[in-house]
Amino acid sequence: MSRTRTLFEDPSYYLFKFRDSRQFALRITILSLSLLPMKQFLLLLSVILISSCATQKAINPNDVEPSIDAWHEAAAQADFKKYFDLMTTDGVFIGTDATENWQIAEFKAFSKPYFDKGKAWSFTALERHVYSENGVVYFDELLDTQMGICRGSGVMKMEDGNWKIAHYVLSIAVPNENVSSLTQLKKEWDAEYMKKLRAQ
């Protein structure tokens, strides 16, 4: 007759009973605490739960949105330094053209001539939704731009004590009834570019 192995006899056996090592570690912690006298167990469990709640504290959108607004404003004012200071050192910008997927150094090279002319681009938020999870902020927004209504979405990270843009995607918002016309307009270009991508 087979005998079930206990956790203390073979911890590695029980590791595979859980989806990941964090669940296993949590179970080990609870089991270890359960060996303590009841008062000590309850006290330590309370401390663990309070600490866990504290680390999951939601980020206030009001702490983040000024950085997004300042980033857009820096482009409108052609302030090259401020604009890129508000992006992380490993930032990424994805533009409306399928070829535009820039690491920050590439984006700087693309942007510099526009900033040097005294005005880069002017984006004003019409609406914005901000979310946060595990210390990371992500958002989407509708923008008033020189291209009409655009949609932006981004990820922000804390760097040097400030919230900065780590990843941003810009797209032109197209009404559903205009999609067929737009598809025909760019059909040949898309076909050539897809052929190029598939050949890589």
Q: Can you characterise this structure?
A:
- This is SnoaL-like protein.
- By secondary structure, the protein is α+β, with helices and mostly antiparallel strands.
- It has two domains: 45 residues, no CATH class; 115 residues, Nuclear Transport Factor 2, Chain: A, CATH 3.10.450.50.
- The chain has a six-stranded mixed β-sheet.
- The protein is globular, with a radius of gyration of 25 Å.
Q: Main sheet?
A: 6 strands, mixed
CATH topology name of the largest domain, in short, is: Nuclear Transport Factor 2, Chain: A
CATH architecture of the largest domain: Roll
**What is the topology, as strand order, of the major beta sheet?**
2-1-6-5-4-3
The CA-CA distance between the termini, in Å, is: 59 Å
Morphology call: globular
* Helix share, percent: 40-55%
Tally of separate domains: 2
| Tally of helical segments | 8
Radius of gyration computed on alpha carbons: 25 Å
A few lines on this structure:
With 200 residues, the chain is α+β, with helices and mostly antiparallel strands. 44% of the residues lie in helices and 27% in strands.
Which helices and strands appear, and what pairs or packs with what?
Layout: H1 11-15, H2 21-34, H3 38-55, H4 65-76, H5 80-85, E1 87-94, E2 101-103, H6 104-116, E3 124-133, E4 136-145, E5 148-159, E6 162-172, H7 179-185, H8 187-199
Parallel strand pairs: 1-6
Antiparallel strand pairs: 1-2, 3-4, 4-5, 5-6
InterPro entries: NTF2-like_dom_sf, SnoaL-like
Domain SnoaL-like: 67-175
Protein name: SnoaL-like protein
